[in-house]
Each structure stands twice: as C-alpha cells, then as structure tokens.
Amino acid sequence: MVVIKNLKYSFDLKGFEGALLPETGKVPWGLGEGVYLHKNRDIVKLSELELPVGVYAIYFDNVKCPFCRIFDAVWESLLRDEDLKGIKFVTVVCTYFHKKCSDETAKQMYMRFKVTRSPTVILYDNREGERVVELLPSRYKYDYMLIKNELQKFLAQAGR
Fold first, then answer.
1. Per DSSP, what are the bridge partners of residue 121?
2. Is the pLDDT of residue 22 over 60?
3. 8 vs 65, higher pLDDT
4. Half-sphere exposure of 13 (CA within 13 A, CB side)
5. How confident is the model at residue 64 (pLDDT cuts 50, 70, 90)?
6. Beta bridge partners of 33
7. How does DSSP assign the chain, residue by residue?
C-alpha cells in the first residue's frame, strides 16, 4: 500500500462549451493506473482486490475517456461533501477498461464488477454479504445533486 499525501484536488472545466470535450490522457490528482482509496486529502494506492468492510462509491475511470474528464469535477465535489462521510471513495484507473491496463489490481476490479462503460460508479456495501448498484453518471446528465441523492439513498439503505 502506497500513500500519496496532501494532493490538492483540482480540475478545471474552464473553456468547456457543449460539444468541446476536455483533453483525454490526463487523470486529475496525478493518478496512474491503479486502485486508489481517498482518505480526507490523502490518496492511498491499494494493492489488493478485496476492500475492507464498508460502504463504497467506486469510480471507474479510463485515461482516454473524455466523459470521465467531465465527471472528474463532479467526483471531486462528492469527495469533499460532508453529507457523504459514511461512504468510502475509491477511484479505479485503467487506460482502456481491463483490456489495456498495466495495474493488475485495477484490471481485476474492472472484471469483478463487469464494468464496460465509462465513467461508471459502483455503489458497493460489503458489510453483510454484498450489495452492488451500478450508477452511470450520463443517466444523471453529470448533475452533481442528482448523483449525490443516489449516493445518499444507497447510504440510507445501508443503514449507515
């Protein structure tokens, strides 16, 4: 496990106008391929497929995905939201799904949750058995409040 300390969360969508998509190939927070647990302002790279017991929002990010770059700003806001403190946030980064991924843990995460579209957020509760819900940000028009509401519903169903 590697800890990347005190990274500043920032992503600038300045200049984004409708069909103009942000540059691909750059993932915010300077993350390479891998599985990362966000802990406050720190990011911990995980080397094991099994997540500790808890309630998770897992963002599957492809380096070459322009819509992931749009969703990054929403994800960053969710990471900071005090109302979502009961959720552990994980980012899984590959270049192109499990098909082009040099990090074995990230590749296995894509396959485990059968992620074939990006961006995808998997809501996952492994406290008593497993409960998995797929959330596609595009279905919510990348709207922060709509996505936050879905996370809050999942958390409430988990019984906090």
1. 59, 135
2. no
3. 65
4. 17
5. confident
6. none
7. -EEE-SPPP----TT--TTPPPPSS--GGG--SEEEEEETTEEEEE--SSPPSSEEEEEEEETT-HHHHHHHHHHHHHHH-GGGTTSEEEEEEESBTBTB-S-HHHHHHHHHTT--SSSEEEEEE-SSS-EEEEE-GGGGTT-HHHHHHHHHHHHHHTT-
What are the residue boundaries of the structural domains of the chain, listed by start?
Answer: 2-6+25-157
Say what the pLDDT of residue 2 is: 38
| CATH architecture of the region 2-6+25-157 | 3-Layer(aba) Sandwich (3.40)
Is the pLDDT assigned to residue 150 strictly greater than 70?
A: yes
Predicted TM-score (pTM) of the model is: 0.82
As a dihedral over the C-alpha atoms of residue 108, residue 71, residue 40, residue 109, rounded to 10 degrees, the angle is -10
